[in-house]
Design goal:
The protein has 266 residues and is an alpha/beta fold. Helix content is 18%, strand content 40%. α2 (51-60) links the parallel β3 (44-49) and β4. The structure holds NADP nicotinamide-adenine-dinucleotide phosphate (NAP) and manganese (II) ion (MN). Residues 50-52, 55, 79-80, 123-124, 160-161, 163-165, 168, 226-227 line the site of NADP nicotinamide-adenine-dinucleotide phosphate (NAP). NAD(+) binds at residues 51-52, 123-124, 150, 152, 163-168, 187. One of its GO terms (cellular component) is cytoplasm.
Length: 266
């Protein structure tokens, strides 16, 4: 990686891994990388932990499109966003010493809440009833009123998020090479008044999805942006689209998305 030398490390200090983390820092210095304390000065951002840590690293550093993100797993196995393992320094060295690194690009979701506040999600945006009662959402695809949802909530996921929450509700696993957003339901109520498609659906990345929370008293849904809950209380409208820019990660040999799917689930 001759043109990327400034590394920012994102991790939760834990005694268990401290020594291993220190040896990763040593490795970086040994190969002439500069460790920066301000992510704005970085062109490589390394998350040490699991997928959850990687998601946090991307959020905390603002989905930087001029950076290369890399995840180092500390758990028993590799995970979706962590291509390296903290014990496998050989692979880390191989990646940092290679002249030309291959880059993998992952799209993310842009969410605009009530026309002004903007957020991004790498896995998914979820809208869930904040209380035990159901809530109602009008679902629009572009300008088309598509369905009226009543139930527990909805998940709107990216291709890389398709193996996370979306998969637990029987959503499809989507190849990240397909620019798309998937909408899946959490316990929709279906009767003569309320009818939804019932199956997850996948939209082209060119489309816009709008979710309007019906203001009927239960209009304080919980909004999840990956692993963070949104602080805004009353929400009326969410406009969701796929980003034009993408998150860059390191592409390794024998580690395609479908290899990860097989490794994790089969
Ligand atoms: P968590 O509750 O620890 O995450 C649940 C599991 O999902 C963890 O094993 C995590 O891996 C894994 N994961 C995260 N992103 C993934 C991806 N893109 N593909 C496959 N697995 C993935 O919370 P967290 O670690 O902060 O992760 C947040 C994510 O958890 C959310 O974005 C959501 O997708 C997911 N989630 C799932 C459910 C569910 O399945 N019922 C409910 C809530 C949230 P690590 O152990 O490596 O972190
Ligand atoms: Mn986790």
């Amino acid at each position: 990686m001759p043109n990327r030398r400034n590394v920012y490390f994102f991790y939760k200090p834990e005694e268990k891994y401290e020594q291993k983390v220190q040896s990763i820092f040593q490795l970086a210095k040994q190969y002439d990388f500069t460790i920066v304390n301000d992510y704005r000065k970085a062109n490589i951002i390394v998350a040490i932990g699991g997928d959850g840590t990687f998601l946090q690293a991307v959020h905390k550093t603002g989905f930087k499109d001029d950076c290369l993100y890399a995840g180092i797993a500390t758990g028993e196995t590799l995970s979706f966003y962590c291509d390296f393992h903290i014990d496998d320094t050989e692979k880390i060295v191989e990646a940092i010493t290679s002249e030309q690194i291959e880059v993998r690009r992952y799209p993310f979701i842009n969410v605009t809440i009530d026309g002004n506040t903007k957020f991004q999600c790498l896995n998914e945006c979820t809208v869930r009833s904040g209380i035990i009662k159901t809530f109602v959402v009008e679902v629009f695809i572009d300008d088309l009123h598509f369905e009226t949802f009543r139930g527990d909530g909805m998940i709107v996921s990216t291709p890389t998020g398709s193996t996370a929450y979306n998969k637990s509700v029987r959503g499809a696993v989507v190849d990240p090479m397909l620019s798309s957003i998937q909408v899946s339901e959490l316990a929709s109520l279906n009767n003569n008044h309320y009818r939804t498609l019932g199956s997850p659906f996948i939209l082209s990345g060119e489309r816009k999805l709008t979710l309007e929370v019906v203001q009927d008293g239960n209009d304080y849904p919980v909004i999840g942006l990956d692993n963070e809950a949104l602080g805004i209380r009353n929400v009326q409208k969410l406009e969701i689209s796929l980003s034009d820019t993408k998150i860059k990660t390191v592409k390794l040999k024998d580690n395609s998305f479908w290899e990860k799917v097989r490794r994790t689930f089969l």
